[in-house]
């Protein structure tokens, strides 16, 4: 009853509610931004006869680069700055930068300028998300932190789901032409910018009594510059140490090497779906496809959004069911079965031309993903010594982004020589064979590993 009381007491805290709903609005805009970028790449591929998979592969690299380059420094830097100012500055920059994307595409026609801008949008997003959770304790009393985090997590997931579900519809609407927006995908960027402005003004209102306009002194700028160089250098050394220790632990503990190997296979699956299958979903079906182009399902960007939403439902359902029934099946068996099933889903996706089957496969993909993630995390938690556990998880996160960027880039380049469906078929076969190889390794190491 106490927790319930604290949860509903949150609705009495005006500043917290404004913060929570403005951030949910901003999260909705983030997902809309993803959909707008995908729709923009599809538009350019049709207009200039470009290969959409290459465009998406470059976008994948841009998305992962901020985490690869700055993920290990962001937390340290944010702790040294005023987190409230970080939030406002990051969303202010994102609000302005997002508006430049349609300009660069429609007026200049330079997609690489878009990638340059997108890099900074995702970089500011990295710092924003790092500071966001650190600000919550300043808005509610300590006894309400659990309820506050639960509430923000809940509405954040709802906003993400709605952004994926309706984002594709919004950027495909013909309505925008009636109000002067010639290309519907550009409306996604305008709305996304609006969500950032809502966040900026909400944050300014919440922290209005704590913010004062101060021009930084020259000495402070020089000191902060030296501190920044020192922080980057120190954390770069820590990153190299963590990677070295992580690699030694990965190869010395079979359960850990098993988990990392399955993570790499999972990343290959994700890169294949993102780079290869999204263009297949968007591309026109056989009667309408351009000469020399590869036929798709003709579902457009709204189809991508619907598939993502259906996959999210599968994720939610399997998270709940695995939490209740997961103890009955070994965790490594769950990883192997899920990985093999995802490989088969990729294979079926490459072979089917039905516009209905992908929705079933998306739901099944969500069902298999959650148990895989949960089992991987649990295996590491149970087998990694607690004094190095944080380093192992941070190393895995860093490697996950690194390999996703590499796989996405390579697959995008291969579309010059091979059909997307053929490449997706190969990806599915590799992922399924990886699962069988992990099963073989599990049996080989079964006598020496703890029962999982």
Automatic annotation (TrEMBL):
InterPro entries attached to this UniProt entry: MFS (IPR011701), MFS_dom (IPR020846), MFS_trans_sf (IPR036259)
Cleaved signal peptide residues: none
Topology relative to the membrane: Multi-pass membrane protein
Residue intervals of the Major facilitator superfamily (MFS) profile domain: 258-452
Key words, A-Z: Cell membrane, Membrane, Transmembrane, Transmembrane helix, Transport
Pfam families: MFS_1
Location of this chain's protein in the cell: Cell membrane
Bilayer-spanning residue ranges: 16-44, 56-74, 86-106, 112-134, 146-171, 183-207, 247-280, 304-325, 332-351, 357-377, 398-417, 423-441
Record's keyword annotation contains Transmembrane: yes
Lineage per the UniProt record: Bacteria, Bacteria division WOR-3
Record flagged with keyword Hydrolase: no
Gene Ontology CC annotation, any one: plasma membrane
Species this chain originates from: candidate division WOR-3 bacterium
Gene Ontology MF terms in the entry: transmembrane transporter activity
SUPFAM superfamilies associated with the record: MFS general substrate transporter (SSF103473)
Full protein name: MFS transporter
């Amino acid at each position: 009853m106490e927790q319930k009381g604290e949860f509903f007491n949150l609705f009495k805290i005006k500043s917290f509610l404004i913060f929570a709903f403005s951030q949910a609005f901003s999260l909705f805009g983030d997902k809309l931004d993803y959909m707008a970028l995908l729709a923009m790449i599809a538009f350019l591929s049709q207009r200039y006869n470009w290969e959409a998979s290459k465009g998406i592969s470059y976008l994948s690299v841009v998305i992962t680069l901020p985490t690869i380059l700055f993920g290990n420094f962001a937390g340290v830097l944010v702790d040294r700055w005023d987190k409230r100012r970080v939030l406002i500055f990051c969303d202010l920059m994102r609000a302005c930068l997002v508006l430049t994307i349609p300009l660069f595409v429609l007026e200049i026609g330079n997609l690489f300028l878009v990638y340059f801008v997108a890099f900074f949008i995702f970089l500011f997003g990295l710092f924003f998300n790092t500071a966001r959770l650190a600000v919550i304790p300043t808005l509610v009393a300590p006894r309400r932190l659990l309820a506050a985090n639960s509430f923000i997590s809940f509405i954040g997931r709802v906003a993400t789901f709605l952004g994926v579900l309706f984002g594709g519809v919004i950027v495909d609407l013909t309505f925008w032409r009636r109000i002067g927006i010639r290309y519907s995908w550009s409306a996604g960027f305008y709305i996304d910018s609006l969500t950032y402005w809502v966040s900026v003004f909400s944050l300014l209102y919440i922290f209005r009594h704590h913010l004062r306009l101060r021009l930084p002194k020259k000495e402070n700028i020089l000191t902060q510059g030296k501190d920044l160089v020192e922080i980057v250098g120190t954390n770069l050394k820590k990153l190299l140490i963590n990677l070295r220790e992580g690699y030694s632990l990965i190869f010395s503990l079979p359960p850990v090497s098993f988990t990392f190997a399955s993570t790499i296979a999972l990343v290959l699956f994700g890169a294949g779906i993102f780079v290869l299958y999204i263009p297949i979903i968007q591309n026109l079906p056989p009667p309408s496809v351009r000469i020399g182009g590869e036929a798709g399902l003709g579902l457009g960007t709204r189809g991508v959004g619907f598939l993502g939403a259906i996959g999210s439902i599968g994720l939610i359902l399997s998270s709940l069911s695995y939490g209740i029934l997961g103890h009955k099946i070994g965790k490594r068996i769950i990883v192997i079965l899920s990985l093999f099933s995802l490989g088969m889903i990729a294979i079926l996706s490459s072979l089917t031309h039905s516009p209905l089957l992908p929705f079933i496969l998306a739901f099944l993909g969500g069902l298999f993903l959650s148990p895989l993630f949960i089992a991987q995390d649990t295996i590491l938690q149970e087998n990694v010594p607690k004094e190095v556990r944080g380093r192992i998880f941070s190393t895995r996160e860093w490697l996950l982004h690194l390999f996703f960027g590499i796989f996405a880039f390579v697959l995008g380049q291969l579309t010059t020589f091979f059909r997307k469906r053929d490449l997706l078929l190969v990806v599915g076969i590799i992922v399924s064979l990886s699962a069988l190889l992990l099963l073989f390794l599990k049996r080989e190491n079964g006598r020496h590993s703890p029962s999982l």
